[in-house]
Design goal:
16 helices; 6-stranded mixed sheet; Protein-Tyrosine Phosphatase, Chain A; Udp-n-acetylmuramoylalanyl-d-glutamate--2,6- Diaminopimelate Ligase, Chain: A, domain 1; about 450 residues; about 30% helix; alpha/beta; about 20% strand; UDP-N-acetylmuramoyl-L-alanine:D-glutamate ligase; 6-stranded parallel sheet
């Protein structure tokens, strides 16, 4: 993580005051939450809608922070403490990350897409770790606040950084890419997330393509070649990049020629390699995420022959197709971190194909940010459920009620339940589970469906 004196920081960001008495104070890492301050941190107080972090500057320093930033329009700065006054603290945080990134001898892989960013990040980092010292975005620190924290957390001797880039509007990916300065970029797919903000899949594709703009001459662009929206835009782009594609289609640079799915993951083969890969992650869609990671790692010198070593110890970020056990011994797929129509359909299809269970139950919540067609998207999800391979459907939320409505077209009324509170849902759900039950729990992040998983454990 960043280690610099306050004097050095003055050469990295614009400072409004003269902190000469403290210029040899050294900061070690950056923190924006005064409750999580560690010894030596630079505390960056952010002004939120409800809480102003400046209220906690003195406490942060008392609890071990070496120094703090202070926004100049906030009155009464504690000048008796090592404080750097800046125009605006969030902009200063971003400026510091941008400057630090350019001081590091590190190659960055940037990852964006409507679905699968975090899983692809985890896979790419695991594969690159076979050859390099690697760091990756922790958790979901992938926005205009999280990205600078991820960059400032990089060690000076890190060789490869795998950074996830999220967005909700046009221009955000461009901003993050300019800060991260990637040598390689992955676009996992174009889905329906953010239709509320961007209005169309075309606009989403345009926004995701912003990651390509910051690549250097000869930089690597990896994208889902089965997506026409990405094919069209990449074909019109500057051809000085190294472009590689992945997907099911045989025109892609890398595609699967064999996939076998099971209750513990997938085995697959790819074109051009006489190797059987073992991926301990559920879902065919995650095989495609693995292909993106494999192309990227191979570009940087990781042989395909060694990749199973990384897959065998792969650890995914929590709540991404995470298999856990309930109190009765039931198997629960906790995929509660996020949801879109594309990812929800993939998860449901996975459950429909898994065998060896006496009962399979879907617990589905609202998918958010889908725009004017949100009700239709939910209804179509329910309508697509295969009644022959799913025993019960439980929904949670006002929008998810339309999933239930669609599901009733093929499932009997007594196999579909719709709820507006989790406690009632869990009570009814527990009546139908045993040690040979499989349960999928999935919804958008705002629904906090992990509460249901925890109630079953």
């Amino acid at each position: 993580m960043i280690r610099r004196t306050l004097k050095q920081l003055q050469n990295m960001i614009t400072v409004e005051n003269d902190p000469a008495p403290y210029e040899q104070v050294e900061i070690n890492g950056v923190c924006i939450d005064s409750r999580k301050v560690k010894k030596g941190n630079l505390f960056v107080p952010l002004k939120g809608e409800r809480v102003d972090g400046h209220r906690f500057v003195e406490d942060a320093i008392k609890n071990g922070a070496a120094a703090a930033l202070w926004q100049k329009d906030v009155p009464n700065p504690p000048l008796h403490l090592p404080v750097l006054i800046v125009e605006e603290t969030l902009s200063a945080l971003q400026e510091l990350a941008r400057s630090y990134r350019r001081q590091l001898d590190v190659k960055v892989v940037g990852i964006t897409g409507s679905n699968g960013k975090t899983t692809t990040k985890d896979m790419t980092a695991a594969l690159l770790s076979l050859r390099f010292k690697v760091q990756k975005t922790e958790g979901n620190l992938n926005n205009h606040i999280g990205m600078p924290l991820s960059i400032l957390n990089l060690e000076e001797d890190t060789e490869m950084a795998v950074l996830e880039m999220g967005m909700s509007s046009k221009g955000e990916i461009r901003f993050l890419s300019e800060m991260a300065a990637p040598e390689a970029a992955i676009i996992t797919n174009i889905g329906e997330s953010h239709l509320l903000d961007l209005g169309s899949r075309d606009a989403i594709a345009d926004a995701k393509m912003e990651i390509i703009e910051s690549l250097p001459h000869g930089g690597l662009a990896v994208f889902n070649g089965d997506e026409p929206l990405l094919q069209e835009r990449m074909a019109a782009h500057d051809q000085t990049l190294t472009v590689k594609t992945f997907g099911r289609g045989r025109r892609n640079t890398l595609y699967p020629v064999f996939i076998e799915t099971g209750n513990e993951g997938s085995t697959f083969k790819v074109n051009g390699q006489d190797l059987l890969f073992n991926l301990p992650v559920l879902g065919i869609h995650n095989v495609l995420n693995a292909l993106a990671a494999m192309l990227t790692a191979n570009h940087f010198g990781v042989p395909f022959e060694e990749m199973n070593e990384a897959f065998s110890t792969l650890k995914l970020t929590n709540m991404r197709m995470e298999m856990v056990q309930g109190a009765k011994g039931e198997k629960i797929i906790n995929d509660a971190y996020n949801a879109s129509p594309t990812s929800m359909k993939a998860a449901i299809e996975l459950v429909e194909k898994l065998t060896g269970f006496s009962k399979k139950i879907l617990v589905l919540g609202d998918m958010l940010e889908l725009g004017p067609q949100e009700k239709e998207f939910h209804y179509e999800i329910g309508k697509s459920i295969d009644a022959g391979n799913v025993d019960y459907v439980f929904t949670m939320g006002k929008l998810a009620a339309y999933i239930a409505e669609g599901a009733r077209e093929s499932l009997p009324e007594d196999r579909v339940f719709s709820f507006l509170d989790k406690e009632s849902l869990v009570k009814e759900l527990k009546k139908r589970t045993d040690n040979n039950t499989l349960i999928l729990v999935k919804a958008s992040r705002g629904m906090r469906m992990e509460d249901i998983v925890h109630s079953l454990q």
